Amino acid sequence: MQQRSEETKARILDASVKLFSNHGYNTSSVDDICAEAGVSKGAFYHHFESKQALFLALLDGWLKTIDNVIEAAKDKTVPEIFMQITEAFPYIFESAGNHLPMFLEFWLQASRDEEIWQASIAPYRRYHKYFTSLIKRGVEEGSFVEVNPEVASRLIVSMAMGLFLQSLLDPKGAKWEKVARESATMLVNNMMSKEE
Amino acid sequence: MQQRSEETKARILDASVKLFSNHGYNTSSVDDICAEAGVSKGAFYHHFESKQALFLALLDGWLKTIDNVIEAAKDKTVPEIFMQITEAFPYIFESAGNHLPMFLEFWLQASRDEEIWQASIAPYRRYHKYFTSLIKRGVEEGSFVEVNPEVASRLIVSMAMGLFLQSLLDPKGAKWEKVARESATMLVNNMMSKEE
Q1: Which domain holds residue B27?
Q2: Looking at this predicted complex, what is its ipTM?
Q3: How many CB atoms lie within 10 A of CB B29?
């Protein structure tokens, strides 16, 4: 039963990505998504409170790659954790390609609803906190040079969001996975103690 | 006569910023902008081909601060140029605050029109080229460490766009001018030769 429920949820998520990217966020209704996924409206609302909640779940799923790497690496040294995140980071761009209008429409709707808005900007605040504490640990254990953890974390999160925005605005302008890997590696190498 | 024409243009630009940020890009018509600016439609179309062209002019004006600094600094050494850009960079955030919906609406429209789209992403491509050649010069003259200019330039542009996106998404989440200054300084310092 649990398994079937998870399959239904996955089907709804798959169907919504397909509809949102092909027809836009605004024009794809909950009815459309249910029809595409072959599920009842009851099943939809069992899993998601609203279309906006569904979009937030898509965002979360999409960031899950990074979260899983962070979780799996938590007992390693700080440079090792960074290296593993740097390896995983480019993969979030694969799912972003050509999805600009979908993001714009969602953000535009979200910007008019305080609760949805707070939920949609929560991940980037969470990553800022996470990197601040990780860099602090790196400086304390001596594997990182003496940087201001708060500032260095802003720099990392800004780079990630800037790469993401560019990959949305100009999907064919560069090989974004490659650019992401190279930029992240350069930034992390710059922060690592040369004596290591 | 030239002066009066420039004044008219400036009045249209001022009126459009006011309307776009208060009422949105989509709902503010050319008629509304003319009424707000106290100019005729003929005067509007003398200066701007369309509402989209007007928005592109706003973007250009907004990046002008950076362009002016780049132009004024062009005969200085590479670290000096970077320092001056780093000083000027935070000021572009002052005008960005609370303007998210305006940008989203414009981008959404622009994403459906290839010509407008190319024009709206031109600045970031231009900055990528500029920083690549500047960093190359810095490495050649020995004031910068041996970095890959292409990658380092991506990192700089990504940081700038990420900061810009965050300041739009979360205007009250941080003092973005301060964050921008600190992040840019850290990034440039990391690239500068320690022997200098």
Answers
A1: 1-48
A2: 0.83
A3: 12
